[in-house]
Amino acid sequence: MIELARQRAAALPIWSGPVDPVPLGGGITNVNFRVEDAGRSFVVRIGDDIPVHQVMRFNELAAARAAAETGISPRDVYWEPGALVIEFIEGRTLADADVRDQARLERILPVVLRCHRDVPKRLRGPVLMFWVFHVVRDYAATLRDGGSRHTDRLAGLLDTAERLEQAVGPVDIVFGHNDLLPGNLIDDGARIWLIDWDYAGFNSPLFDLGGLASNNGLSAAQEEWLLEAYFDRPVTDDLRRRYAAMKCASLLRETMWSMVSEIHSALDFDYAAYTAENLKRFEAALAAFGEM
Prior knowledge:
Blueprint: H1 2-10, E1 22-24, E2 31-37, E3 40-46, H2 57-70, E4 76-80, E5 83-87, E6 92-93, H3 96-100, H4 102-117, H5 132-145, H6 154-168, E7 174-176, E8 185-187, E9 192-194, E10 201-203, H7 205-216, H8 220-231, H9 237-264, H10 271-290
Antiparallel strand pairs: 1-2, 2-3, 3-5, 4-5, 6-8, 7-10, 8-9
């Protein structure tokens, strides 16, 4: 699969001559390559629509272009169905420990705010909404249809999701990135870049905030800072509880994403281990939520 993707990346019509795509690690949805051409560096993302994950490439492209115009993501230079070429950013791809550094976290939050507030002003054409509880219900149906080894868990997970959805309550709507894993953040020393817009869509801001915290192991004090800084007001008990419910939902979605990937992805990645890791984190967050 990787070799076929490499051949496709090499054959794209934008290159000035023969190129040698070099695989980039870290991708668990696409196959990614770095390409050097005419003195410039590019990233080639090879991947078709993934209906089981509600990933639609027209939506990714619209979000990526709007984010580039906003100045928080690299520009695309070429697109065709199943292939996206963007500028390569020289910088440090973050790990969760990097995000937990308070000084860097304070540089990341303005990027999230610009995503939420400014990207929608530059969007063109149809784009999707990302509602985590719909995603969870759809994942459950996909897992049942696919005979997943996790089928016996699904009724309990869906009951929990319904309680979390009720706890979240009515929401404001922003344009979310919806996949704030540390590997989707790059620090070039001067600015923070946000990449990989596969799951972008209109959503509650609480989802990105909860995802940023849960995916990167932020401390309770950092989560309190995050909420107060984002909303620019003291954190109420009501907001704290609604945020905690969405944080649990973020972890549940990541867990079920991995469960679905176990039976539907052909990429070389240990999805079973990723499922176990996220299930453990989800259960810990859910226990903490139950104590609120």
